[in-house]
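Async update (no meeting this week)

Hi team, since we skipped the sync, here's where things stand on the single-chain job. The sequence we agreed to prioritize is pasted below, unchanged from the tracker. I ran it this morning and attached the output directly underneath so nobody has to dig for it. Comments welcome in thread, and please keep replies under the output.
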Amino acid sequence: MPDTQNRNFEIATFAGGCFWCMVKPFDQWPGILKVVSGYTGGTTENPTYEEVCSETTGHYEAVQIMFDPSIITYDELLDIYWRQIDPTDPGGQFYDRGSSYQTAIFYHNEAQRLAAEESKRKLEASGRFSKPIVTKILEAKPFYVAEDYHQDYYKRNALHYTRYRQASGRDRFIEYHWGD
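Output:
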């Protein structure tokens, strides 16, 4: 855990399908203090992975990011976020299907809400996608940290993570739409 004493930090929360695939893209930037996998947006308190996957809790798999806004801005995080997902898919992300794998931006204050809405408008106007942007912008709800084996999955299980991510089609999609 990074030292957060005497530091100005904020929280951002994004759902982008499998949370394993959403940690690494954020974890690599200066100003990111911590990225945690978890569940949010539902009604069940302290849900387990199995409960969330059952599609009965209303939760999304999500990442919560602690960041220093003097080093990386919320707008920059939004830009990173959009480049990790298929914002036109209402049924999940890549081969992870169901409501727990849908995309959403969970705002923690009015400034985040406005920034998220503006970034979504800009993406829609860009013409980058031929289908409508369906990613929801929702008020943040309690965030429940996922089980330990889900944390930093890309580091602890690098080979499996790499195979999973490639097989899912996420990397091909990103390359096609963003050229990164």
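Quick observations from my side:
Residues 110-126 form the longest helix (17 residues).
Strands lie at 10-16, 32-40, 60-67, 92-93, 96-97, 103-107, 136-139, 143-145.
Reply here if anything looks off.
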